[in-house]
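User: I'm putting together a teaching handout on how multi-component assemblies are represented. Below are the sequence lines for each component of a complex, exactly as they appear in our records. Could you produce the 3D structure of the whole assembly as structure tokens, so the students can see both representations side by side? Please keep the chain order the same as the input.
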Amino acid sequence: MEFELSSDQKLFLATARDFLEKDYPLDRIRRTGEETTGFDRDWWARAAELGWTALLVPEELGGGSISGNGVRDLALLAEELGTGLAPGALLATNAVLAGLVAAHGTGPDHTAEIEALVAGESIASWAVYEPEGQWDPLAPALTASPLDGGGFRLEGAKDRVEAAGQADLLLVTAATPDGTAQFLVPAGADGVTVEPQRSLDLARAFGAVRFDGVRVAESALVGRPGDDRAVERQLQVALVVQCAEVCGGLVRMFDATLRWAFDRYAFGRPIASYQALKHRFADKRTWIEACQATTSAAAAAVQEESADAARLVSVAKAFVGDRSLAVLQDCVQIHGGIGVTWEHDLHLFLRRATADHSLYGTPDEHRRRVAGLAGL
Amino acid sequence: MTDTTESIESFRARARAWLADNMPRLADAARLSGDDPAHWERARELQRKLHAGGFAGICFPEEYGGLGLPYAYQQAFSEEAEGYEMPIVLNIPSFSICCATLLDVGSEEQKREHIGAAIRGEEVLCQFLSEPSGGSDLAGLITRAERDGENWVINGAKIWSTFAYGADYGLCLARTDPEKPKHDGLTMFLMPTRAPGLTMNRIRMSDGTDEFCEEFFDNVVLGPEHVVGRVNDGWTVASRQLYHERTAVGGGSIYTSGYGQPPTRSRPDIVDLVRRAGRAADPDVRRTVGEAIVMSTVHEQLVERVSAGIEGGHLPPAAASVPRLFHAEETEAHADALVRAAGASAAVASAGNAFEDVGLHYLCRQAGSLGGGSSEMARNLISERLLGMPREQAADRGIPFNQIKRGTR
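Assistant: Of course. Below is the structure of the complete assembly, with chains in the same order as your input.
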């Protein structure tokens, strides 16, 4: 996605690739079948040792990036892991860390939780969607009612929570009398129940979470009620990770489809020689370059916390979200029947890309956000 | 002021101060259409101002009248020049295609004379390439140049020459040896637009504008000094023009100064349009506006990425067709979005109303997909040169031009 990488960045990415290929080759993901249960916790702890959870966290909180630009490093890592369709909590944990770091110093202290997440000792996920609801992070129906003796009582439900069955901590958006707030709730707290859901993406498990009169202390608050900056930062990081990992998968499947077109013959000539297909390859090549351009511009804006970051992540999500599916479905078409079989890799990437298209705001929801940010 | 040790920031600060003192504000500028002759006088006047101030030809070499500075200085200048009246109409084709090509393949004398004159605002160049008998098959052209002693006598016709009526010279590709295969018998000439025997007409487009021209050559006589590159090596010169054209149309030329398009028919502002139409609350319309902004933003990001990729050697020069193709998609998507956003007002509007432009703009929706080589040619280039896919069968490859079959239309 980026043209110039430092030797440290190259080493970081090569290590990540080797680590993933050794333990989670595509065949292992295919074998998990439709009953996705998640990933191996020890494996995640070792991934954390490689720095996958440290990139957005300042050094004084136990983190550290590779290049000094943690968001861009995270985008590069996500692209690499997207190429290999990694399981794990890269998006979930880093989105939560982005919020915790953004809110650091503005509310109760979460240094210990941040350090445990960076070390891979604990896993966190953002509980933001609600049953039957669409993307609307600042209008939760789940309530957090202040208790007389201090603390809050959470009542409501969340769903489409990534790695819900494996998360130790849930970052829960909730309505309070003072506006939308976020709480860091232990998944083992009394009144929290997790039900697995069916996930299109075989490498990622999701779950529905009920909060029945869950009591949390004031110290579970992240930032202050009504301060939406952390939510926006979490969204921006989630979108950068989504777009970057999809870029990685797109390049891999495009290259495989191009090779197929050279190797496959019809009527005595390679199908790569037919203009009807050549022109579609040219379009796909163009769209992939554009996906990389807009993702890398979004990552740079989020890195710099520029005023335009909110707009640029939505531009990237709207574009990559739809174009990735157009590219992958055309790769299926060019493969023919083999492209829709369980044994072929294409559906694994199509599953991931469809999930990334649909979650954290659909392309259309982000188009409307772009219109709003343009003053409409 | 061509001290190459000057920092970009210092250059930028100097440009900002100079622009404020010397260039007219765009808001005060007369709205001259690009097809109005007065627009051309104005552009030359503005270019002379830039030259007098030491801010003309920023990326052209010093020995040919430029400043010899890297692209980053030109970008800084263009950013500072936003909001000022600039000679935008000189960017394409004069500077970014014609002067860029002369710089690549022109004789020392041609470079000194013509690039310098263009930078000083004294000369404008255009292209005489396409012909009525052929669009995408440029090398199949039939305009002929025959020797007469040391001179050349040119007969034939050209079409789709952008802004030719505002130009002094046209880079004219003609057949000098019909016995050779089509690419091998061509020669490029630098032809004065007011040469005796040249007749120029303007072409009225479907939206009412007339920036394109057609030319007829009836025994136009040119001396040997008008040949650009070598005789019968005109395809090499044309290839440089096409490369510079793809780069410029895609938005990535280092030789353009100032942003924006000449105001032949300016693109209506979609956000403003939706507000005037009272449709800002309609979620479908908001989606449409968002999509238009997404497409133009991604186009800008793609141009920047591919320019940097080619400049840094990470992408081959053939990648210039990628933003070119996307540019067409973006202009089509934007034209569609405007019509959808305008609703019923796209069809009927009061005269002079912004809505009037929506429908007219839509009539030329395909312009971005046709100008500077069609999108189909861009797709051929990307698939064949960037992806290495097999080339299209050609029935005229290696055959003497005068034995190739030709159509009747």
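A couple of points students might notice: The beta strands of chain A are 124-127, 143-146, 152-162, 169-176, 179-186, 192-197, 206-216, 221-222, 265-266, 269-270. Chain A has three domains: 7-118, 124-222, 229-373.
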